[in-house]
Q: What sequence folds into this?
């Protein structure tokens, strides 16, 4: 696996692949790789001749400096995992490569970035859109792979690619879960054993919600049921339950009668976890 620290080196790799007529799939990450990321690599591998991964802990998407400082990082371990997945090249830039001195350009999806999680994390999705736009421009892949777990992030990126006419497709990959249902996340390692056990309430409440939707329900009843399940877990501090139209992320009321996204965020011992599910009536 070639490790590329600069824009020039990663572009040289892509140019070689292109010259050989090969297609390129991209997986952008912030490191601390887990099975969820590896699933993205495998999806890219299935559909492309070459796979490029990026590891860049993007400072502009962290609201609090403390959150950025706590973000786990172990490049040597991540590199071994990427080699294990036969990733062809890794783009591993320093901050000033992505954000050159004097940098002042941002990318923002004005509606999608500022609803739901965007309301509690102001600037977060602007940071994500900005870095992903730069990574897309640097690498120039045919397709880029993102987890459905970060549902709002996926919608933001899809909209940005559509609106700015990026010549690539955005592929959503289903959430990878632990055996008990907990969605994989780099944050899970920060949970105490007790909080780790309690966190399963997120996926349990989504499972119950799906059953409720299948038998016919309303947005209001669904919200009540999810909130009650999460509140029954004493270690969980519920931050938000959002039930919205899929893709547009617009709230609606009454019968659940269209593709609908349920997004939950809750804290366990100070660690904020999210989970989501798209349900069909
Ligand atoms: O999902 C992530 O890991 C990050 O938000 C991303 C897409 C790599 C942008 O920094």
A:
């Amino acid at each position: 696996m070639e490790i590329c620290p600069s824009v020039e080196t990663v572009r040289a790799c892509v140019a070689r692949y292109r010259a050989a007529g090969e297609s390129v799939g991209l997986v952008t990450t912030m490191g601390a790789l887990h099975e969820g990321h590896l699933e993205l690599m495998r999806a890219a591998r299935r559909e492309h001749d070459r796979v490029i991964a990026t590891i860049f802990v993007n400072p502009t998407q962290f609201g609090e400096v403390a959150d950025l400082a706590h973000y786990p990082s172990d490049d040597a371990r991540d590199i071994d995992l990427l080699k294990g997945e036969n990733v062809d090249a890794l783009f591993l830039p320093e901050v000033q490569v992505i954000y050159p001195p004097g940098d002042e350009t941002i990318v923002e999806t004005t509606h999608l970035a500022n609803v739901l999680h965007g309301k509690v994390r102001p600037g977060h999705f602007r940071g994500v859109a900005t870095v992903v736009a730069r990574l897309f421009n640097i690498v120039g892949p045919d397709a880029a792979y993102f987890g459905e777990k970060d549902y709002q992030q996926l919608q933001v990126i899809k909209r940005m690619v559509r609106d700015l006419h990026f010549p690539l497709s955005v592929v959503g990959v289903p959430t990878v879960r632990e055996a008990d249902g907990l969605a994989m996340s780099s944050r899970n390692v920060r949970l105490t054993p007790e909080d780790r056990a309690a966190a399963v309430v997120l996926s349990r409440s989504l499972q119950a919600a799906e059953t409720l939707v299948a038998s016919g329900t309303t947005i209001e009843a669904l919200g009540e049921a999810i909130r009650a399940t999460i509140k029954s877990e004493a270690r969980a501090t519920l931050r938000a339950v959002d039930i919205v139209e899929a893709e547009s992320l617009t709230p609606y009321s009454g019968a659940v009668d269209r593709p609908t996204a349920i997004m939950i965020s809750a804290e366990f011992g100070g660690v904020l976890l999210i989970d989501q599910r798209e349900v069909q009536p």
In short: The two ends are 45 Å apart (CA to CA). Residues 28-30, 58, 61, 128, 131-132, 150, 153 surround pantoate (CB under 6 Å). The chain has eleven helices and nine strands.
